[in-house]
């Protein structure tokens, strides 16, 4: 297998560092795109949190049943690399990424509107989430492919990762704060009425996203050049991807980082059933957790232009390994909210560094495929980790075993760092590796 190159392109110009003003304008545009997508995402956003409360409070499902719902409803995401491959090879309306976003955001809006007037049952909710996530994967592949391409072509993968993480945190914060409060407020209302309001809100957000994608700011799209040769058979691209060694350690690290057995459904049930936290407090915990990542995301954004990625990967991982240990010391909903702060802070540098690594690891012209591979791994790791965590929690009747399992998995990332090609991580943002200049 080839070792790959940080800035090697099949077609186009050599990598170059853009002026700071241009970088900020590009990241600002991408930030708006990410925020709109985050609010309207069927697997999260303003929809995801209330759906989890529907399953728990309205349908009275047990922890392992909720985990299984998400495991099944995530089926399209397990093959999300196929959507990324479509992004890399096709260009709807001749608009490339903008075409994918405009078209399939519109499809999502139509699906949201249709399901808003469907009677809420377990089956109808499952079908709705499956169809919406399928359409949304085309939108996600375009956004991720575009951001990765810009990060690679202009040696700003660390800044792209920082912006990606920070802007993505905004809808997550709002979703948990608003979603939990909405669930509490709608507790006395019919489930069908609540579902209708939420799905119509999702439709409105996706219409806004589709319209936003029609805009073509020159500062963004004039700084993206084609990396693919025309007429290349799909099988040649598949072979090129398989032979590209850098993607393997990057994806393996991403898999381990997101396989956190017990951090989702078991933690929710532990907080609400054992610590007697309300829906709003569960939302607040997740909001505090997500917000606490932001300061260390910003720290990474500052350091990534001064320190080589290899150092940020190592120290970010060392700090992140015991990330969930503070959960061993919570004995009330209030103490859980306090513990969310150090837990979030400890994960920020590692999370940003891993996405930086993924961007640098993409083979030229196949950014969409590679980044959507990471989405598939994220989904599988999250869902299967959740299933394992719920079984551990149900079997042992203690959340402590989940914390131990998460810490062991995170520790396994350290030896994986040794497998990364050295020249891939030997530079800081804005630098081109010496042997590639």
Task: Spell out the blueprint of helices and strands.
Elements: H1 20-40, H2 45-58, H3 63-73, H4 80-89, H5 96-116, H6 122-153, H7 157-185, H8 191-213, H9 218-221, H10 234-242, H11 247-258, H12 265-274, H13 279-303, H14 309-320, H15 333-361, H16 367-396, H17 400-411, H18 413-416
Task: Tell me what you see in this structure.
There is one protein chain. The protein has 437 residues and is mainly alpha-helical. The protein has one domain: Up-down Bundle (Growth Hormone, Chain: A). 70% of the residues lie in helices and 0% in strands. The chain has helices spanning 20-40, 45-58, 63-73, 80-89, 96-116, 122-153, 157-185, 191-213, 218-221, 234-242, 247-258, 265-274, 279-303, 309-320, 333-361, 367-396, 400-411, 413-416. The relative contact order is 0.17.
């Amino acid at each position: 297998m080839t070792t790959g190159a940080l800035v090697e392109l099949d077609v186009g110009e050599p990598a170059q560092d853009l002026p700071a003003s241009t970088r900020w304008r590009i990241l600002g545009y991408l930030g708006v795109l990410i925020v709109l997508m985050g609010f309207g995402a069927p697997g999260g956003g303003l929809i995801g949190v209330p759906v989890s409360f529907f399953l728990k409070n309205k349908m009275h499902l047990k922890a392992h049943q909720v985990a299984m719902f998400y495991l099944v409803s995530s089926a399209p995401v397990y093959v999300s690399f196929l959507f990324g491959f479509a992004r890399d090879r096709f260009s709807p309306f001749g608009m490339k990424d903008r075409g994918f976003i405009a078209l399939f955001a519109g499809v999502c809006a139509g699906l949201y509107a249709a399901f808003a007037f469907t009677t809420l049952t377990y089956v109808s909710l499952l079908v709705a989430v499956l169809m919406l996530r399928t359409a949304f994967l085309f939108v996600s592949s375009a956004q991720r492919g575009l951001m990765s391409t810009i990060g690679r072509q202009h040696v700003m993968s660390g800044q792209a990762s920082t912006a990606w993480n920070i802007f993505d945190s905004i809808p997550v914060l709002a979703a948990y704060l608003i979603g939990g409060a909405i669930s509490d407020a709608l507790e006395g209302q019919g489930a069908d009425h609540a579902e209708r309001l939420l799905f119509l809100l999702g439709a409105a957000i996706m219409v806004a996203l589709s319209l936003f994608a029609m805009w073509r700011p020159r500062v963004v799209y004039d700084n993206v050049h084609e990396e693919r040769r025309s007429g290349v058979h799909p099988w040649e691209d598949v072979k090129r991807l398989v032979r590209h060694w850098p993607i393997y350690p990057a994806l393996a690290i991403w898999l381990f980082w997101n396989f956190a057995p017990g951090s989702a459904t078991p933690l929710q049930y532990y907080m609400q059933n054992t610590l007697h936290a309300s829906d709003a407090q569960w939302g607040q915990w997740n909001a505090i957790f997500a917000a606490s990542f932001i300061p260390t995301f910003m720290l990474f954004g500052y350091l990534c232009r001064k320190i080589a990625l290899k150092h940020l990967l190592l120290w970010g991982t060392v700090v992140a390994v015991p990330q969930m240990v503070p959960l061993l010391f919570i004995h009330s909903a209030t103490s859980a909210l306090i513990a969310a702060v150090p837990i979030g802070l400890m994960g920020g540098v590692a999370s940003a560094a891993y996405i930086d690594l993924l961007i640098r690891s993409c083979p030229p012209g196949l950014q969409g495929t590679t980044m959507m591979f990471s989405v598939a791994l994220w989904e599988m790791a999250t869902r299967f980790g959740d299933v394992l965590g719920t079984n551990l929690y149900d079997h042992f009747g203690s959340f402590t075993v989940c914390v131990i399992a998460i810490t062991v998995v995170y520790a396994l990332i350290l030896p994986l760092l040794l497998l990364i090609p050295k020249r891939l991580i030997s530079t800081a943002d804005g630098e081109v590796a010496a042997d590639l200049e």
